[in-house]
Design a protein that fits this description.
By secondary structure, this protein is α/β, with parallel strands linked by helices. It has 14 helices and 19 strands. The protein has a seven-stranded parallel β-sheet with strand order 3-2-1-4-5-6-11, with helices on both faces. Strands 14-19-18-17-16-15 form a six-stranded antiparallel β-sheet.
Length: about 475
């Protein structure tokens, strides 16, 4: 069967793709920017990649008319403060486009919406579900709460809190109940409902066997990691204070923190386990899901991470708009040094950031990260998904990878830190020399003053970095 996979670059989409291919389906991967869609070399067969932006109807003509089914895995929760309008528009455009195809079945992964009073985020998910259900196709909704897996936003936030804070003074919403589910079980449900007539035009809550408060989830994580943690809840934290607390302690963005805090006040517990019985799936428990996530992390086998999505950073456009490093009106710091060991220098460049650091003046990089976080930026906490591999679209601390070709010997990064302008950092290997170029395009007088203020630091930071990369 021919399946349209929207959000193919996202956390769920990247993991669902190989599952669908193993089932023998031909998959049409819908992405906004094909340049940041990186495929495993073994997965190219039976894949078609199209560019489609569901906020732009003109791009939806790229959707093939002969698709048999589709997965709707789109959301705009942290893309805008008015994400409800964006999500509804996306759903409407998707429905109208799919109505023009021969698709028989559409599957939507939503959130659990059983409470009378819902957060903005969950209310938006419910509205999208209603809109998608108006189409001329069979429709199935799977409603999940907290998804636990290596690289998932929920897992990384829990990990940040528990690993960093021995004692936590937390908001009272940590007592709210939820029903976490492992990412592997979510994929099983998504796989098994496809073209299953028993699931047509129905919605199903899916969750693991454990119903836990967020506090119990944190303590359960600590137990799996062999850590002692003390958590105290207080009633005085307002939603805004709670959002700031989550934002500063974890690697999440502020917009995502706000959306999560509002949702964490609402219980996300399954009404029944109809889907498990119908599809013969036995979900694993919370602690087993955590252990499996750490196996993936230990073996550097993280297929996708929320940190690599646009929602974890500041840019929300095509990579191609930033690939051409500007020249006019820019400040540059360019350095050139001979390379003593080509293979070693390439390896060092491809390990840059994250736990490896920046090879020189790491305390200054960390200080810049703290300042960025304080002023509402992404900071250094995102790190990187894989310690050795880089691909276009990946996040590296407060940078976004625009181009990464190890054979060519070129790595181009774009700054997602808070700046009065735009910045690029490029590493290029030519004639056994490393050319390291920092480019800054200032915005107004403040941008020019910023460049001259940090110029003294560039002298030894960038010189020390290129020396360490080439020695």
């Amino acid at each position: 069967m021919k399946i349209l996979l929207t959000g193919a670059n996202g956390y769920i989409g990247k993991r669902l793709l190989p599952v669908l291919l193993e089932e023998g389906h031909q998959v049409v991967c819908s992405v906004r920017d094909a340049k940041r869609f990186n495929l495993n070399k073994n997965l190219h067969q039976n894949i078609e990649v199209i560019e489609a932006d569901f906020l732009d109807k003109n791009t939806l003509k790229n959707i093939p008319q002969d698709i048999d089914g589709a997965y709707y895995l789109l959301h705009s929760m942290s893309a805008s403060s008015d994400y409800e309008t964006l999500e509804l528009q996306c759903a409407t455009n998707f429905r109208e486009a799919i109505n023009q195809t021969k698709a028989q079945h559409v599957i939507y992964l939503s959130g659990i919406v059983n409470e009378d009073s819902l957060s903005r985020h969950l209310e938006s998910r419910k509205t999208v579900e209603i809109e998608l259900g108006k189409g001329h196709y069979n429709f199935t909704t799977l409603r999940a709460g907290i998804i636990i897996g290596s690289g998932s936003a929920s897992f990384e936030i829990i990990r940040d809190l528990v690993e960093k804070l021995p004692i936590m003074i937390t908001p009272k919403w940590l007592n709210t109940k939820c029903q976490p589910i492992a990412i592997r079980d979510v994929l099983h449900f998504l796989q098994k409902v496809l073209f299953n007539e028993k699931t047509f035009n129905k919605s199903f809550d899916i969750g693991g066997p454990d119903i836990l408060s967020y506090k119990e989830m944190l303590l359960g994580f600590a137990k799996v990691r062999g850590l002692k943690r003390w958590i105290y809840t207080v009633p005085v934290m307002t939603p805004k204070l709670s959002s700031y607390w989550l934002y500063f302690v974890t690697s999440t963005s502020y917009k995502l923190a706000c959306a999560l805090v509002s949702s964490m006040k609402v219980e996300v517990v399954c009404k029944c386990d109809t889907a498990s019985k119908l599809l013969h799936i036995t979900p694993i428990d919370y602690k087993t899901a955590l252990r499996k996530a750490f196996y993936k992390i230990r073996d550097n086998e993280i297929p996708s991470s929320w940190k690599d999505s646009w929602s974890s950073g500041l840019i929300d456009q095509k990579l191609s708009l930033f690939l051409d490093v500007p020249v006019y009106g820019c400040f540059k710091d360019q350095r050139n040094k001979p390379i003593k060991n080509l293979a070693e220098t390439k390896d060092k460049i491809w390990r840059i950031g994250g736990e490896t650091g920046w090879y020189y003046g790491n305390w200054l990089w960390r200080l810049r990260g703290y300042l960025d976080k304080f002023f509402g930026g992404v900071g250094l906490r995102r790190g990187r998904t894989h310690p050795l591999n880089l691909s276009a679209g990946d996040a590296v601390d407060f940078w976004r990878v625009l181009h990464a070709d190890k054979t060519e010997g070129r790595l181009l990064l774009f700054a997602e830190m808070k700046l009065p302008g735009e910045a690029w950092l490029e590493f290029t290997i030519k004639n056994n020399h490393l050319i390291q170029t920092a480019t800054f395009r200032p915005k107004g007088l403040s941008g020019r003053l910023y460049w001259y203020a940090v110029l003294p630091f560039h002298g030894f930071i960038f010189e020390g970095m290129i020396k360490a990369l080439t020695k």
